[in-house]
Each structure stands twice: as structure tokens, then as C-alpha cells.
Amino acid sequence: MPEERSSLAVAMEHAKWALVPFSMVMSVRYFYWRATETLNLAGPAASTVSVTLLAAEMVAYLTFVLFYWQTFAPSQPEPVETVEKDLPTVDVFITIYNEPVDILFRTLAGATALDYPVGKLHIYVLDDGRRPAVAEMVERFGCRYLARDENTHAKAGNVNYGLENSGGSLVFILDCDHVPVSSFLRETVGFFQDPKVAFVQTPHHFYNPDCYRKNLYLEDELANEQDLFFRVIQPGRNPSSSAIFAGSAAVLRRSALEEIGGCQTLCAIEDLHTGMVLHAKGYRSIFYERTMSGALSPENFMGYLVQRARWTRGGVQLFLLRNPLFQTGLSITQRAHYFASLLYFFHGWIRLVFLMTPLAFLLFKTPPIIADTWTLVLYFLPHYILSHHLFHKICKQYRNPFWSDVYETGGSFWLAWTALITFFQPETLIFNVTPKGEASLKKEVFHWRYVLPHIILLGLLLLGVGLVTHHLVYSDLTLDAYALNIGWALFNIVLLATSIEVAREQPHKRATHRLHRSIPCELSFEDTVIAGKTVDISDHGVGVLLDTQAHIDQHVTLKLFGAGGMETSVEAEVLRTEWLEDGTSRVGLKFLNMSHETSCGVIRHMFSPPDSWAAVTHPRMAGLRSFSHIAGVTLRKRLKKPRPAKLHGPRSKKTVACELMTPLGPLPALIEDLGSTGAVICVESKVAPHKRVTLELALAAGGWKEVTAEVMHRIKSTDHKTRYEVHFIDPPHVDHHAFKEEEALVS
Questions:
Q1: Backbone angles phi, psi at 490, to 5 degrees
Q2: For position 492, what pLDDT does the model report?
Q3: Model confidence over 438-462: pLDDT tens digits?
Q4: What is the dihedral sign for C-alpha 8, 14, 19, 22?
Q5: Contact between 669 and 707 (Cβ < 8 Å)
Q6: What b/e sequence results for 596-635 when a residue is b if at least 16 CB atoms lie within 10 Å of its CB, and e otherwise?
Q7: 115 catalytic per annotation
Q8: Is 128 assigned a catalytic role?
Q9: Helices (DSSP H) in 232-331: which residue ranges?
Q10: 460 within 8 A of 452, measured Cβ to Cβ
Q11: What is the mean pLDDT of residues 80-95?
Q12: Alpha-carbon span 341 to 336, nearest angstrom
């Protein structure tokens, strides 16, 4: 059966590419018909709209063709082994400007854990922010600190300054948020045995959800937006040695860099330009697809726009000043691949044409296309369906055409404006650092300023749809024209509404992101030791699955066991315990008294194992399901279930009457979920209790029992009552069966 499935997969792959020439024939047929029979040349305004639309369609299709070219024959080179004594010297460059220092801490912890001979590895932090806190941290790690007097040429200048003050044969460049696995250099330096290899690039894996996935509640269903580039395009460029240098998580040959004068400083995307110049000099590149670092993607829509605006600015600069089509030394395929990369940065203009063109008919009755509906269907649908089907198949689970339209719509106005300004001022160098490591957000925030153009255009399209509907009813407007333009407008409305929703930032209350890690561990307190495995872990805390159920002290010691005999012990506070039906228990811990060594140990357990990212899965979003997901976004937000209480130990669902003792006097309350070390209390009053409270619980044997408890958090409720989760302090454990059930209050 495996052999049959493999043969079927190969056959389907061949069938996929057999569709490419057929698709291109249908597209040429469509564009010939569009250019010869459908243009509206009835006046200057109509001609402008009609010709501009055709030009945008043709440029968009050219990107499809170039995409086919880039992804036709992906390859994955095997790592090359290197004898220990022949390992080259490596300088690690960690670049930082104004990013939070705790982000740098993770990267330094990972970099200092690299599996490489000590005498052949030197770690430099290149600080363009010149901050004393950074210098102090670098000294604590025993690394080397470099800071320039000025920030000329931004990151490119920073890297070049590092080249001037170091001497390793290879240079390993990391952005301050890229944490490498310990085997990174062992798996990449072997490629440099070939003297023509200038750099080895690895994928960027982002362990936090981007703004689209987070704000649309699609973390489990949508791949990261950049996965298309790193998982589909980059492997396809390996055979022609045109893989793009992506600025981080890459190893470069120092002599090759020095031969071209270091990192290029012409534009804002110095990495792509540097790689192109190296290729023009006859050097090869390797894209090694194994994920060997974890990084942060922009965590909000503003950061996303800042990042893409910088890329757009640099792409337009390079397109105008160093167009790869005219770059000597590049092969024809390399020219085409680099041209495709730069052409992408004009997508803002193309998308705006598609978004705004329906308004010509909806508001001014100027049809951009002169054709009846059935003729348009006969020419357009074969071109559209085949092109988009192939795109979807080539992209696998990483992208579908609908989501490409959504991504392009989200940044279309700002990126089109950036491209326009750069087009007339291409030599102006502006470098804006992408903000990362944002502070926690306690409540939903709508950044309407970033999507104001989207809101205005959405309103105009809705107005246009209303006017056309009115004309359809009360005038002689034809159904053909109505069907074409109203359908187009409705599709654009979906794209715009989705983009607007992305600007509605969803709360993220954790200070740091948790990683799903299964690390063997032990939980110890007094004379008790319980074995288990971590479920998830962050810099500040961990979720642990224990092999048994037991009453656990409030303060414990957690010992983590990693590969190669790595052990880390850390003091922790038990925040919550949940006893599971299979006889195990899940415990939530908060780290306490973290020393430098302990923090480093935790980070290395999270990021350093060579297989840290081996189990990463990429969600698959089916094209036909995209609309339903978008339509359900609002419902998911409004009907999101309240966070369930996770109490210590076993629980009883019986309802227990109690009094909540407050400075204002006793407050009648009701316990709805009683555990051995905590409870969920429900009060009718909206008076917020103090952090520490006293409860009077009714005993089944008669009388009352006083318990001191700590309020952990308020639970969202849908019945207009106020509920709090509390954990018992004195006594820390109670017999939850000893309390009287209040029958009158059950209903």
C-alpha cells in the first residue's frame, strides 16, 4: 500500500505540472480576447480605467508565470559532514537596535549553547542602540560587545562594522529574536567545503502567531504568511542557485562578503541585494530547509505594516537602481527569479486597481469591460480556475488564492503609497525597525487609523451596490452588467472586511509566548518526588503532566532533563492543579527566584535541542472553507466560551452556601465548583473582592468552617453574575465532601 500511494503521489505531481502549459494556453487566449475585444475606449476616463485594469491583470499573471518558474523543481541538499579538526572559525553576529532586552537574552542563551569548538566560535552583539543594559547582558554571557558611534546604513552598516572588528572564516548572522538550535553550525558549515558557496540560508520559523492568525482566531487553521516564501519558493530556487539571503539565520563566507565590499547599503533590503551581488560574482547559495531557529513575527497589524513598508521601499529601490534584468554575471534563470522577487513589491498598486475598478461602474456607470456575461465566462473562467488551481496545488498547505488576496488587501493602501513615494525618490534610504516583543494587551483594541482607507472604500462599495440595486429595479440597467460588477464588488467587500478585522487587536495577556514542549521532569517537595513531562513552557512558567495524583505543596522544585545530560532546577509556585480521569494530573507552575544560570537553562530546554522544531505542523486551510471561516470570525469573538476553572485536586459539582467576608461585612455567596484546594464562587454583587479573602463554608455536620483564600482571576460569565476562582491558603487543603449542599440554591 505505501508503494501504491507513493506511485499515485508521483502521478498526481506529474499531472499537476502537465496542467501548466494548458493553463498558459487558456490564459494567452483570455488576454488576447481582452486586449482586442473588451476595452472600453469611449472617452479618456473610460479608457484609463479599462486599460489600467488590463495592465494590472497582465502584471498579476506575469507573477503567476514567474512563480511557476521558481517552484518547478524544488530540491533539498543533504548536509555535508566535516572532520572536527577541519571545522572553520565562525563569528556569530547578533544585531540589535531598540528591541526589548529580554528578547536578546533568549538569543544569547541559545547562541552560547551552540555545539561548536570553543576556540573556533566567537559571539558578537552588534548594538546600534548603544544601551548600557545590552552591554551589561553581553558581559554576563561572556560574549563580545560592539557599538558604533553612528547608525549609518542601518543593519547593513552594523554588520559591516562587525566584519571590520572580527576575523572568523564564516559569519553566522542572527537577528536579536532568532534563537538557534545547538546543532545549527554543525549542519551548515560543511557546505562551505565547496569554495563557490557564498552563503547557506535556513527557514525562518515564527513561534508566535502573526496578526492575521491571532486576530482572526485562525492559529490552528492558517499557516504563517511567510511560510509560502520559506517552504515553497526558496526550495524551488536551489537548482538555479538563486536562493535569497534573508538577513538572519544564515551563514556566510567572510571572503565572499569582503570581495563585494560587505553587506550592500544601496537600499532598505540589504540582504536580498547582498545575495544578488554574490550571485552575480559567480558564487553559489544553498537553501537548507531544515528549521533550526525560532523567531518572532510582528505581533500586531502596525508592526506588520512597518515591516512590509520597509521591504516595499527596498524592493522598489532595487528595481529602479539595480534591476536584476540588467545585472551582469547573473544567469537568465537568476535574473528571472530576482525580477519576480522585486515585481512582488508592486502588488499594492495591482491590488488597489482590482479593489477600486468596480466603483467605475457602480458609481459612474462606466463599465471597465465591454462584454456580455456568457462570453466573459467562456474566456475568463478557464484562465482563472486553472491558474488558481495550480497555485493552490503548488503551495500545498501553505497558501491558497483567497488568502493571497486577503494578505495583499491588508497592506495594499500603505504599500502602494510607499511604492509611489519611493518611485519618485529611489535614492532616499529609510530603515524602520520592525517592532517585536510587544507588551501584553489586556483588552481588545481597534487600530482604525491603519485601516481608514479600507473603511472608506468599503463604504463606497456598499454605496455602489445599493445604487446599482436601485437602478436595476427602477431603470433599464441590464442584468449582465449587474451580475459582473455586483459579484466583483461583493468579493472585494469580503476582502476589505477581513482586512479591517485584522486591525482589531485581540488580547494577549501573557508576557511571553509558550512553546509546546515534552521535556522529562521531576516535581519535588518535602520528601516527595513525582515524575512527569512538560506540556508547554515559557520563560516565566510551565505546564506539567504528572504520572500520578497527589496533594502538592504550594512551593516546589522542578527539575528539567534535556538531551546530552542537560539538567536545570528551578523553584516554582503551584498556581493550579487539575486531576484527570486517567489517574494523572496537570499542574501549572510559575517560576520563582530565577538566576541567570537558571533562566539560561530554561531557555535552552525550550530552544536548543536539535529537534526543537521537528514536530512543527503547518495548518491546512482549504480554499472552499475560507469564506465560512471569515464569516464565523465575529461569532467566534462574541460567543467565545468562558475560560474554565482549573482547580487543585478532585472537585465536587455540588452547590455549597457560603459567606464572603469583606471589609463591608459578610457577603452571601455560592460555591459552584468546590475542590480540595480551591473553588469557584458566585456572588450577586459587583463589588470586587480583595486579593485575599475569608470564606465561611457551611459544614454538612453542622456549623461553619473558616477558610482563607487567594483570588486568582475573574471568570467571564454569560448570565450577568460575577464569578471568581479562589485558591485556599489556610488551610491549603480541605475535605470537599464535608460541606453541606444547599438544595434551595441548586436551581
A1: -65, -40
A2: 94
A3: 555 667 788 888 899 999 999 999 9
A4: negative
A5: no
A6: eebbbbbbbbbbbbbebbeeeeeeebeeeebeebbeebee
A7: no
A8: yes
A9: 234-236, 254-259, 270-280, 301-321
A10: no
A11: 92
A12: 9
- pLDDT bucket at 435, cuts 50 / 70 / 90: low
CA 376 to chain centre: 39
Contacts of range 134-141, beta carbons closer than 8 Å, 24 or more positions apart: 134/96, 134/101, 134/104, 137/101, 137/104, 137/105, 137/108, 138/108, 140/596, 141/108, 141/109, 141/112
d(CA 267, CA 639): 47
On whether the CB atoms of residues 368 and 50 are closer than 8 A, the answer is: yes
Give the Å distances, CA to CA, from 466 to 101, 318, 360, 492, 500.
53, 44, 14, 15, 21
Grid cell for residue 97: 537596535
pLDDT tens string 721-739: 777 888 888 777 777 667 7
- 401 cis-preceded (ω within 30 degrees of 0): no
Q: Is the pLDDT higher at 652 or at 529?
A: 529
Distance from C-alpha of 139 to C-alpha of 523, rounded to nearest angstrom: 33
d(CA 305, CA 373): 38
Domains of the chain: 2-72+347-505 (no CATH), 88-204+246-296 (3.90.550.10), 518-607 (2.40.10.220), 651-746 (2.40.10.220)
| Catalytic site residue from 91, 127, 128, 227 | 128
Provide the 3-class DSSP secondary structure of residue 26.
Answer: helix
Classify residue 457 as exposed, middle or buried by CB count within 10 Å of its CB (0-12, 13-18, 19+). buried
From 177, 271, 405, 539, active-site residue: 271
Q: What is the pLDDT of residues 473-506, one digit of tens each?
A: 766 656 666 778 888 999 999 999 989 989 988 8
CA distance 703 to 697: 9
Q: Tens digits of per-residue pLDDT, 528-564? A: 899 999 999 999 999 999 988 777 777 899 999 988 7
What per-residue confidence (pLDDT) applies to 491? Answer: 92
Grid cell digits, residue 124: 558578537
